[in-house]
Design brief:
CATH topology: Growth Hormone, Chain: A
Number of helices: 7
Largest sheet: none
Order of helices and strands: HHHHHHH
CATH superfamily: MFS general substrate transporter like domains
Structural class: mainly alpha
Radius of gyration: 19 Å
Number of domains: 1
Distance between the termini: 41 Å
């Protein structure tokens, strides 16, 4: 497996872990600390997801046109990384809005060039494995992020998270019971 694929997988794992920690805690932070309402959260998340979609439309074409896939991947991950400290430092909803907007631009920019870079550096016989490895590492990050967010919340506010853990436990038990039928 090319080293670039492993490196991109590791970066995906770390970036997804950090993003999911923030996404898991962001609504509670917005409501309890910044005093946001549901409409504000909906606008922030709606604009963020739309931004990702629009950015993706152009990133693949720009990657092919420039031929600088690595540069676009670095810009995309860099934009997302730069925004991470803004979330806990936010003193208002506007800061969170801007941070989510820039973070999602970064996500949209990096996707297509990253996948094209993987295809460029991987022998044809290993491409499926390479894409699977990168995606599985991303998925591990998506699993670890909310888990770490729950642990952070439990350490910070155990009285709030006890009921959350109870809900997770009951939900897991229900799903397990359903699949055993």
């Amino acid at each position: 497996m090319p080293a670039a694929v492993i490196a991109l997988g590791f970066v995906s794992l770390c970036m997804d872990t950090s993003s999911e920690i923030i996404h898991s805690l962001l609504p509670a932070f917005l409501v309890t600390i910044l005093g946001a309402n549901g409409l504000s959260i909906g606008i922030i998340e709606g604009v963020a997801e739309a931004t990702t979609s629009v950015s993706r439309i152009f990133s693949g074409a720009i990657s092919d046109w420039l031929g600088k896939r690595k540069l676009l991947v670095l810009i995309g991950y860099g934009l997302a990384a730069v925004t991470k400290p803004l979330f806990p430092l936010a003193t208002g909803v506007g800061t969170v809005f801007v941070a989510r907007f820039v973070d999602r631009i970064g996500k949209g920019i990096r996707g297509a060039p990253r996948d094209a870079l993987i295809a460029d550096v991987t022998p044809l016989a290993l491409r499926g494995t390479a894409f699977g490895l990168r995606q599985s590492m991303d998925t591990v990050g998506a699993f670890l992020g909310p888990l770490l967010a729950m642990l952070i919340m439990f350490r910070a506010r155990p009285e709030i998270t006890e009921s959350t853990f109870d809900r997770v436990r009951y939900g897991f038990t229900t799903c397990l019971g359903y699949h055993m039928l």
